[in-house]
Amino acid sequence: MKKIMLVLMALSLAVTSATAKWGDRDERIRVTEHIKITKPYTTQVKVGEDCYKDTVEVNVPCNKQDTNSIGIDTIIGATLGIAVGNQIGKGKGRDAAKVIGGFLGATIANDQRQGIGNCKSYETINICNPRYEYRTVNKIVGWKNCVYIDGQRYCKQTTKKVKWLRVRKAITVY
User: Fold this and answer.
1) Euclidean distance between the first and the last CA atom of the chain, given in angstroms as a whole number
2) Strand 24-30 relative to strand 33-61: parallel, antiparallel, unpaired?
3) Hey, is 10 helix, strand or coil?
């Protein structure tokens, strides 16, 4: 078991030393300069409204008018109701069916004639249409964070400001 542990430790040490180059080191360096990275966008801005009056057609419930008059349609409805009632029952039941059928036929025909449903009317309304103006605005899309190392300027782009940048320097020995 100890031999396996020693082999694993030696293998991990060999992998670690193989990946790291001689003289590589990571440093954290404080950022000294922030530069906005902007991109132009076009936006719509509401400036005002153009309003005007217009007359439109609307559906409204019809008013019942002339509820006491009897027309030909009412008489035809009553006659049809009596004819249908005549087909139902025998004796006094048939007579009752005729009376009820005549009454229902007359009522239905009279209601149809008086316009139960929707009628057309006209209404004046205000209509306002917005007016838009297009403007170009510069929107911040990121930051260029810069540092100076040994007199050399290095920059990295990020989506937000950062205080520190991690820099990897390689030292070459001749």
Assistant:
1) 44
2) unpaired
3) helix
| Cα 112 from chain centroid (whole Å) | 44
Is residue 105 a contact partner of residue 78, using CB atoms and an 8 Å limit?
Answer: yes
Distance separating alpha carbons of residues 113 and 129, to the nearest angstrom? 42
Q: Give the contacts of 98 (CB within 8 A, at least 6 positions apart).
A: 82, 85, 86
Q: Characterize 112-133 residue by residue with b for buried, 16 or more Cβ atoms within 10 angstroms of its Cβ, and e for exposed.
A: ebbeeeeeeeeeeeeeeeeeee
Q: Where are the domains of the chain?
A: 63-116
pLDDT of residue 21: 47
Q: Which residues contact 136 (CB under 8 A, 6 or more apart)?
A: 40, 41, 42, 43
Q: Is the pTM of this model over 0.90?
A: no
Half-sphere exposure of 65 (CA within 13 A, CB side): 5
In angstroms, the CA 98 to CA 72 distance is 19
- What tens digit of pLDDT does each residue of 15-60 get? 555 444 445 566 778 888 788 877 877 888 888 888 999 998 888 7
**Residue 147 CB neighbour total at 10 angstroms:** 19
Average pLDDT score, the chain: 77
Residue 31 and residue 148: Cα distance in Å, rounded?
A: 8
